[in-house]
Amino acid sequence: MQQRNGELVNTEPNAYAKAGVDTQAGDRAVELMTAAVARTMTPNVFGGVGGFAGMVDVSELKNYRKPLLATSTDGVGTKVAIARALDIHDTIGQDLVAMVVDDIVVVGATPLLMTDYIACGKVVPERIAAIVRGIAEACEYVGVPLLGGETAEHPGLMGPEDYDVAGAATGVVEADHMLGAHRVRRGDALVAIASSGLHSNGYSLVRKIVADAGIGLEDHVEEFARTMGEELLEPTALYTTACLALAEATDVHAYCHVTGGGLAANLARVIPEGLQARVDRSSIRVPVTFQVLGRLGSASWEDLEDTLNLGVGMIAVVPEHAVDRALRSCQESGVKAWVIGDVVDNNDDVLPVHAHTTTRTVSGTKGVSAGSVRISGDYALA
Mind telling me which Pfam families this protein's record contains (predicted)? Predict the structure, then answer.
């Protein structure tokens, strides 16, 4: 107890604080992040920051003939361990938004809102605010409000420096505009859109490769022209704006977000039964990041392509006649795009793109009964 202005004031931590939960630190974190979150608000947001629930006005959905709500949730996996080790926390937020919102756009949906959840062992206001600031800046970039969130302190369950992040998003698409395997046809072209690096998948393998090689996160890597940690923390590309613009500009049949499992496993999810996507490895110029990691880990290209994106972060499946317009649209959106293959009948008696090299066929991935992906040739090196 202390005396202030003639009154006794209890300055001892309350029982909750003694148990390890600092609600005042949580309040301070909210103060630090409020401005960044406020910048994501769109005219459709109803109410402000701080309520028990976030709300959006969806009156415009009355103009849809048959609106479908699309939803997705995800995290950023063990990439968080790199951020914690380097004490750099403002890039993880973009990774989270990309992993969640770019799944929404795959079906052609326009995102309506996003929420986030951060669990930590101890609330450090500046750290939590940096994470949320990264989330908010990415939301602002793709035009989706960060409508709500939660920071939960879990002392005893997580260490003081531990944290993890997750997010969820909801979007809307007109039923007859929905993209997916049902639209894909024989003769369609596969247009690859470049990744920004490793994105947010395969980090358990990546971290093991780096640790086994004895390379520190702060060690300079000549091929990267920066430290290993800086390379590994390169944020995931945000495709939402470019993909929505592409779908508006020309006929897109399907998108494939290349996340966990690599290109073939994810592409197979949007190829209908009876059809096969042919991918020419030689059309993919593998960035130096993947080359260095493969060399350090003595990993085969097959192992790498089953885990990492190898330079392709999104694929648009478009009719052959739409290829030129698709490439122009991507260029106008500031993303690099090129053709990596096509779609054929599954029973076509066609030779692989490169008969003298390893050809693999991938199907039945992610629990989806669909078509297959045949990948052949040798990767080009950047």
Answer: AIRS, AIRS_C
- Cβ atoms of 283 and 354 within 8 Å: the answer is no
What is the CATH code of the structural domain delimited by 181-381? Answer: 3.90.650.10
Which candidate, 256, 266, 260, 278, places its Cα nearest to that of 345?
278
Burial class (CB within 10 angstroms; exposed 0-12, middle 13-18, buried 19+) of 129: buried
Q: What is the 3-state secondary structure (H, E, C) of 318-368?
A: ECHHHHHHHHHHHHHCCCCEEEEEEEEECCCCCCCCCCCCCEEEEECCCCC
* Domain-wise residue ranges, the chain: 19-45+67-177, 181-381
Dihedral of CA atoms 28, 32, 36, 41 in degrees, nearest 10, equals 30
Residues 254 and 181 sit within 8 Å (Cβ to Cβ): yes
Name the region of 311 (left: φ>0; alpha: ψ -120 to 50; beta: rest): left
Q: What is the pTM of this model?
A: 0.88
> Which fold is adopted by the domain 19-45+67-177?
60s Ribosomal Protein L30; Chain: A; (3.30.1330)
pLDDT tens by residue, 157-196: 999 999 999 999 999 999 999 999 999 999 999 999 999 9
Predicted confidence band of residue 293 (pLDDT cuts 50, 70, 90): very high
Sequence-separated contacts (24+) of 44-51 with Cβ below 8 Å: 44/112, 44/145, 45/145, 45/147, 51/148
Q: Return the closest-CA partner of residue 361 out of 297, 286, 271, 295.
A: 271
Q: How many CB atoms lie within 10 A of CB 381?
A: 11
By DSSP bridging, strand 285-286 and strand 380-381 are: parallel
Q: Burial code of 162-189, b = ≥16 C-beta within 10 A, e = fewer?
A: ebbbbbebbbbbbeeebbbbebbeeebb
What separation in angstroms does the CA of 132 have from each of 29, 137, 211, 318, 343?
9, 8, 29, 36, 41
Closest Cα partner for 226 from 253, 197, 203, 204?
197
